[in-house]
Specification:
The strands form 3 sheets. Strands 1-3-2-4-5-7 form a 6-stranded mixed β-sheet, sandwiched between helices. Helix 2 packs parallel to helix 11, helix 4 packs antiparallel against helix 5 and helix 4 runs parallel beside helix 16. Helix content is 56%, strand content 5%. By secondary structure, it is mainly α. It is elongated and about 90 Å long.
Length: 716
Amino acid sequence: MGTAQRLRSVLKDSLRRGEPTPASQKVPRSGYRYDLDGLRGIAIAFVVLFHVFVGKVSGGVDVFLLLSGYFFLGSQLRYADRADSSINPWWPIWRTLRRLLPALVLVLGVSMAVIMAWIPKLQRIEIANQAVASLFYVQNWELASQGAAYGAASSEVSPFQHLWSMAVQGQFYVFAIALAMVIILIRRYRPEYSAVRLATPILAVLTSVSFFAAIVWYFVDQSINYYSTFTRFWEMGLGALLVLHGPRLLINARTKSIFAGVGLFMVLSTGFIMDGAHTFPGPMALYPIIGACLVILGDGRVAVFLSSKFMRWLGDIAYPLYLWHWPLLIIFTAWFEMDEPTVWLGIAVIALSVGLAQLTHKYVELPMQQQGKRPVFRESRSAEALKKLKTTRPAQVRAFAGVAVFAVAVSLTSSPQVLYQRVLDAQSTNLDPYTYPGALALTGLQYPQATPEPDPYVLADTVSPAWAKGCMSVIDDDPNELPVDKYDPEFCTFGDPTAQLEVYLVGGSHAEQWMAPLDALGKMHNFKVIPLVRQSCPTFVEDLDGIFSEDCADFNELVIERLEEVQPDLVVSNSTRPLLEKGRGIDEVPESYPTLWNFLEGQGIQFMGLRDNPWFIQPDGSGWLVSQCYAEEESLVDCSITRDNFYAPVDPAIEELNIREGMVAVDTSRWFCPEDLCIPVIGNVYVYRDGNHLSDEYAQSLAPFIWDHMRGLLNK
């Protein structure tokens, strides 16, 4: 019998007898690494400090993810190596939920309660959706779908932004449990294969592919790259490989001491020499990750320091500290109406976060954790658990606490619907035209002073009628389908559906925002309005600017075909826009726009081009919520821009359109910028829902002005 056959026979016999796999084949076991608790604590502490005072990514979260792979998958594979391991995944799932979920639900519940009661600026549907996504450990994908770049603390940032890393960690835990279950199943039939032997090639391949994907996606979409579980996997996978093979490395004591010192320096210096928000999890993330690996492989004085009582305490509260600090920072910044937190606010937030973290750890985390050993093959603990629930007070208290956690979690899932209903209620409320004349105030109409409406914080979540009804194609929709074709023909027909006159609204969201007044005018003057609109997609025959997506070009092919087929009485769209993609913020006629006008002229189709409304852009490129600015500052000057900051001296579309028969350029600038100031409130009505889209209420008040230009084209 050969050596390999003898080894296989020994392994089989030992497993049948319940004996352990030979040590050389097993996942390495060592004494508990208190120094790694300290490493976790100091990594999270630096995350908090950099979030509060620096506004940069410190690399601490990357170290946290590495340690998650090291600890969690290591424990799962050690169990899989046992001859009596159970293939039932419920216990590790239940244990993990009991360890993580109570503190998370507490933070989410308290944060949402405070927001709903006192912080209107944060009462946004997107934030409520993020709370629910965090609860189900998919916050990273929610942020990616919202296109939310990871930003420094401010009153505009989500209080749950930081929970993307918890979602990545949770998804990795599901993978780790599944991998362990598969290995246990394989070892039922092939006991000679150890967990190390089975897991190593899988982890090596997935970790390598993930690292390569992180490099590629840095150039494709860094926002998605930053949040993606697939591009983050290599950090956790490397930790798992380290727990499998690191203890086998023979390193002398002096080298270990050097490793630990150099590694800790690399971990702590990351945030000072780079900003991971712009580069992680690509190759630059190797710097803190390798540093953490060196600490894990190291020893000596650094390990003694990290194992000290204070550092171990910091490691104990690291998880609740991470949960608490960011919501507190954002909530207090918004509460005190600051653009960004001050030093004194930051100090107060850190002190409060540490206190709440200690209380959460002592009274929530520890009591709710699963203390019993993991059950083995064919061992059932259901009867014992029920008996304890009936007879012992600690078990009953934990059960009541579990019910409370479940109740709070269920209430959190309803928060988006609560905010959405507020939006629906606001949109169904008609403002008194005497008190809220909107644009009619520009004609000299006298009106009483009143608090502007509608609620600017609810307004930020509203969309215009076509978008709200699902009759607008959004970015994730199939560009090869017109939304109007998905429904009954009259469903996406606005105005008077029975009318003979047809008006088609085409373009992007800046065209679709005119649907409210066009709908009202259609009902009043007997014409139907049909939207062929797509988010971030102005209508053209050919993209001559090179800034619009391929999906937009595909969608526009369908639009042009439909216009040629139906020959509408009038087409309405925008005639100008700023080319921010090319660094130009003054409105102009993009080269692509006249390709549509040439087509319509050739078809004999009339066209009305509406000059774009002002875009309020902050220095970092994000939209400026000017209506909320006015609600907080009550200053037109502080919440406005001058006319020449956006508009060219003369409407750039006039020269192109007014020379064409049946076409008219409408200079809308005087509707938004009385005199030289583009202001957020006109006639007691908020003009903008966000930084560049009109509120329906103000757009509707412009209906008489629009009709003055339309009536001649429709022969009315």
